[in-house]
């Protein structure tokens, strides 16, 4: 019994029925690469959470699932009927977005009525039933499906007029009723109408007088536009629209659209202002608080100090761009870019001296070492709310002069290195050349500040007087 297999296992209380010589089943190997790519694809399909979304927005899906006003809202859209002008089928156009959708899978539930510039048709095919649009017939000539309201004076019918519907052909046999309707329409427009023997002395269509008095609106009420205070505020999703009566706002504001990052409308993303009748010709302004950016647009005719200004873009404390109406400026200035505390770039067009570009590089006066050889030759600029700046480099660019035959003698770029006291002049490329001539000249630029020159002269005179007194 001791030599039987499994005896030791039974003795120890362990029932081992596995064959120790049988290889383990390894199964089908899985590719870790394919598994990782599948996980990446699933993560990409999941929409990343928006940090700006409020907690209330998490319940939006649940709110939309239970809509108490489902199939009760009234909307108007455009129907384009097929058959003419290469339109093969009926389509709908959403006015708010311009999206075109076929009649079958359209987002609309039902149609109650349709109208154009001449008539109004009431849908008699179970109007208001959700999902009934694909089964609706758009044959407005069929009076059992579409009941017209007005009688067309042109051909006497409400539903078969080609001019009224715009697409269907009118029926040739209008019938006796249509003749009566046509005569009634003529009578309504001042025509002869029906004879007594044709209708038994009775008119088919007689328009009653209006039951409301003639409308009178005072001029002040008409100009107010948004009573009672001349303004109106409309709230949208992540947006707020403010409307103002023209010439009522002290700054000429007529419209302000504010868009927000979050649904609670606490973080402003963009503010768009529209103006009218401003003295400075400002027409619109766009502000981006998160970027510290302001973009302004001006109409032609702006007065000084910035005449002919077209656009103004400013990043507070960093950059300022000015765009001009070139035809209204004598110097041909197109654009000016001011990198505050660094450099100024100007672009020109149509100048007689062929100047197309000019830049000035500046540096902080305090950053210049006192022992610098060119420190006394730097041109100082007014502080203008910051540290005193000094010009360290100036550049000018010119277009090709057709009067100069040799391109090697026509200057293309001049660069003044104020610190080094040199000027480099580069010439235009000659035809077929990949290099151009360059010349370097020494300059004797000195400070142009008259007050500092006078102070230096006074100090020198005082030193001379002190020396003479000591002698």
From TrEMBL:
The segment(s) forming the CEP76/DRC7 peptidase-like domain are 72-147
Composition-biased stretches (Acidic residues): 52-65
Q: Which Pfam families match?
A: CEPT76_peptidase, MORN_DRC7
Q: Which domain of life is it from?
A: Eukaryota
Location of the region described as Disordered in the Swiss-Prot/TrEMBL record: 1-65, 445-471
- InterPro entries attached here? CEPT76/DRC7_peptidase-like_dom, DRC7/lobo, MORN_DRC7
Q: Where is the composition biased (Low complexity)?
A: 451-471
Q: What cellular component GO annotations does this protein have?
A: motile cilium
Biased-composition ranges for Basic and acidic residues? 9-50
Q: Domain Dynein regulatory complex subunit 7 MORN spans what residues?
A: 228-461
GO biological process terms held by the UniProt record: cell motility
Q: What is this protein called?
A: Uncharacterized protein
Starting at the broadest rank, the lineage of the source organism is:
Eukaryota, Sar, Stramenopiles, Ochrophyta, Pinguiophyceae
